[in-house]
Amino acid sequence: MFINLFPSKYNNSQPTFSGRLPRGFFTDVRDVPGIHCAKCGHRMLSIPEKDKIINKMSEGARTVLQRPVFNKYRELPVFQFLLKISEHHPRTSIADLLDNNKKAVKRLNRSSKDMLEEIVGISNDYIKKSPQVIRFLYKYRDGMPCEYQDLLDYMKIYSMLYPKNTFSEIFSKKEVIEYHRQKQIENQQQFNKNNIQVFKKLDDIAQKLPEELQAEFLNLNNEAKNITKNRLFPETTKKMMLQELYKNFLNKVQDKKISLRIKNQVENFPNRNTTADDCIISLSNKSDKYILNNILQYVSSTFEHIVAASKNGTKALSNGIYLCRKCNRERSNVDYSTMIEFFPNFVENMQKQINQIMILIKNGHMKKYSYPLKVIKTLENALPVPLDTNIKKYIKYLEFKEQEVYEKKEKAMRRFSQYMNRYTKVDAMLAKKEAEIEELRAKLKALEQEKMSLEQDLDDSYEDVKKSKDNLDFFENEHDLLLKALLNDE
Ligand SMILES: [Zn+2]
């Protein structure tokens, strides 16, 4: 029952298209720069934009080592060693690389180690240190979840305390981890204390409920306990979830006074929310790349299931709008009607986003013609209010486009029938010629037969000639003999 509340989409990020396409053409809205979140209205980072920033802000060993400043070291075995270990992890910083290859580094001789230190020293000038990184990240603070806003404030302070370190190094410092772990523990203790009080009050209320409602109420309270202590969702989301959880039950409670008491309790549940301390602990011992990605993902574009995945919503495009991760997380699987109670700007920003996408399609940056039509339909089923988008204009555009396509099709069909006519004519000619060839072949065959029989006749005549000549020879011989005999007798 409880598992249903938390859709698995938070574990698997959706695949994105990364093939090469002509500039300015997109297959996925998440790749388009300048799209505004459909909930908070902030400009979101597209996925390629986010990746570009991360690579720029956490330049990996591979790129750093290509710089001309290292030319004089390039032939040295120790430099080759660095290049080799950077090959498999081109985006890891040199410091992290050496850390991951401690054993191999240990085996190097004294002078190689000195040389390595020199190279790392130079490379440090090219690695973005905390003040540079925070100056950049701070621009996105407004669009971040509360705990990440606090985190950025901490990062700002740390960048002043440790200006020569990267955040990866700062978040791995013993004193930093210790400090935040302590605050984490205090926070948990405070929550436990408040939690016990609230659930004690709820138990008291349960006693006053009619017997047939008590078991259901206790079950709901247990589920509420799970929601309040879950740190995956922000405070507002939990409030929305709790409101939805008790909604049906509150309708069953006849006593107005008790119903009001429950309502008050539900609205004032203490939540164990993620804090900046939790963030820092989870970012300790992680690379700069990981840290940047973890922070920037909250202002980056994500696909949001309108009908939540946990409520059988499909992954189809028509079931999605685009939210920054902060808002996507806030929504969780709460109904849209509850959402707009808590976030009145939601509908307006949704409309703005759909209009933005319609313009993208009109300008030829995308080919998802049916997306606006379909998603508006899905939204109108999910929302209690009608939408006000430029859809009429868009439909006109589609009709215009359809007319254009229809005309092109007509033209193509005309050309096709012209070619078809020519084809038929040529085909008929071909058949006629083939018949003629057939006739000639028959004639040729007859002539060949005639030739064969003539040849036979010729052979026979030759035989006759030969026989006649033999006879002639014989009679000539006879004649000679007779003549000789005749002469002798005389
Ligand atoms: Zn947002």
Output the helix-strand order.
Answer: HHHHHHHHHHHHHHHEEHHHHH
Sheet with the most strands, sense and barrel status: 2 strands, antiparallel
Specify Rg, calculated over alpha carbons.
Answer: 44 Å
Note the beta-strand portion. under 5%
Count of individual helical segments: 20
Biggest sheet strand order reads 1-2
Query: How confident overall, as mean pLDDT?
Result: 89
Q: Which regions have little confidence, pLDDT < 50, spanning 5+ residues?
A: 1-19
Structural class: mainly alpha
Shape field: elongated
Report what the structure shows.
The chain has a two-stranded antiparallel sheet. It has helices at 47-57, 61-65, 77-87, 94-100, 102-106, 110-124, 130-137, 146-161, 167-170, 174-208, 211-229, 235-252, 256-267, 276-283, 288-296, 325-331, 336-342, 346-362, 371-382, 391-489, and strands spanning 301-305, 320-324. The chain is elongated, with a radius of gyration of 44 Å. Helix 7 (130-137) packs antiparallel against helix 8. It has 20 helices and two strands. The chain is mainly alpha-helical. The site of zinc ion (ZN) has 8 residues, from strand 2 and helix 16. Residues 37, 39-40, 42, 323-324, 326-327 line the site of zinc ion (ZN).
Task: Break the fold down into its secondary structure elements and pairings.
Blueprint (H helix, E strand, L loop, with lengths): L46 H11 L3 H5 L11 H11 L6 H7 L1 H5 L3 H15 L5 H8 L8 H16 L5 H4 L3 H35 L2 H19 L5 H18 L3 H12 L8 H8 L4 H9 L4 E5 L14 E5 H7 L4 H7 L3 H17 L8 H12 L8 H99 L1
Antiparallel strand pairs: 1-2
The protein binds zinc ion.
